[in-house]
Amino acid sequence: MKTSLFVRAGVFSLALLSSSPAWALSCDEIMNMVNVNVPANIIVQTMESSGEVFTSDAVRCLVNNAAPKEIVDTAKKMSASAQPADTEIVREDEPEVKKPAGGGDTSFEDEERIGEKRTKKDSFEDLPEEGEEKRTSKDGCGRQIEEAVDLYKAAKPLASSKVLFDLAEGGTCPNDASEIYYYLGRSLYELQMYHSAQYYFMQVVKKGPSDRFFDYALPKVVAIARLTGDDSELLRIVHKIPPDEYPRAAKNYLNYLMGVRLYDEDNLNEARRYFAQISTKSGDLYLKSKYFEGVIFNRTGKLKSAVKAFGDVVRDAKNVDIYTEQELAEVQALEDLALINVARIYYGIQRFDESSRYYSLVPRSSDYWPQALFEAAWANFMQNDLNLTLGQVLTVHSPFYAEDEFIPEATILRALTFFNLCEYSQVERELLAFEAKAKPMQDELKDFVKQYSTSEGKKLADQAFDAYFGGVKKETVLPKSMFLRFLRNQDLLALVKHLQMMEDEEKLINAQKSLWLDSVGAHLKTVFEEDRRRYKQRAGLVMLSEMARMSNYLGDLLTQSQIIRFEVVSAQRSDYQYKVANTDLAETTNRDQVDFATDVNFIFWPFNGEFWVDELGFYYYTEQGSCK
Question: Angle between the 583-591 and 522-581 helix axes, to the nearest 10 degrees?
Answer without folding.
Answer: 120
